[in-house]
Prior knowledge:
By secondary structure, the chain is mostly helical.
Amino acid sequence: MTRKSRGSGSGKKEKRYFDYTLLFVIIFLVGFGLVMLYSTSYYNAQLKIGDPAYYVKKQFFASLLGFAGMFVMAGTDYHIWLKLSWLLYLISLTLCLAVIFVGAELNGSARWLKLGPLSFQPSELAKLAVILFFSATISIASKKMGNFRTLAKLLFIAAPLIGLVAFSNLSTAIIILGIFVCLVFVASPKYLQFIVPGVLIAATGFLYIMAVPYRRQRLQIWFHPEQYEKGYQTLQGLYAIGSGGLFGKGLGESMQKLGFLPEAQNDMIFSIICEELGLFGAVCVILLFMLMIWRFMVIANNAKDLSGALIVVGIMAHIAIQVILNIAVVTNSIPNTGVTLPFISYGGTSVAILLTEMGLALSVSRSIRMERVI
Length: 374
């Protein structure tokens, strides 16, 4: 797990670290995701489009782009991207604003920008922008993080992007807010200062949800999905989980994907994993994500500087929050909302940006001295 760096003045070669365990987990999750995506989507793809491999082809192409981005990021000093983070943040703001006015609608939600035959979801880029921009900003202001005024300034800077994303995609806005909070929390020496902003954010979020009828209805559907037509997807997902048993029906043997569970390849793919691979398969997937999060913790704890540690903390927060929200939605532990399962659910923009983020984490790992790794 080591690589040798260039010789120092003493003639000795310093050993550098590279997290091959994290790289293996990434490759395995992407490969597993493609297999499960084909298993989940081939029926609907054949029925609606006439090509059973339609979804997996698009995901495979996006994964190739993502791996290219990952290896570019991994081979480049992450400090270069930190210097450009303000530009990425401004681009994300502009694209998220453009979605409100010229966004393409898909499945009832206008969250995409169309670029010819391709579609792009700017809110996914916003996650990466928040990780890089606030890692750079917080590391510069690290000595002032105990000051409430600094926290207020950071929140003021983050608010426009979070607000723009929330306008069309509340679930992604929650993830971005979670990433931001984790970055600030890790760098702050005083935790009591989070109480007032936390109460204000929670109150604002509650009012935002209750102000719109369809969001209020989601709370009602959550408690009684059997009483509402829009609770159909949740119920079918629960049926899939329950019918899988301990070891599942076998790969490709799901019944719910045959037109019963709407958009099974997207947010609800975890329920098909449970049906085909059972509780055993579901636990293995969760353990893989836990292994990934553990590797992020190792890299962050041994990072060369605060900015590198914050980058990895932001990526760790992104993966952890998204996995928890997706599984909670599928199991009806929280109201249904559109959150994909990282690396596994269908979504070209999502997988490409996620893999690019992994390249950042690997870049941070390359800067670690071998003797520092725990």
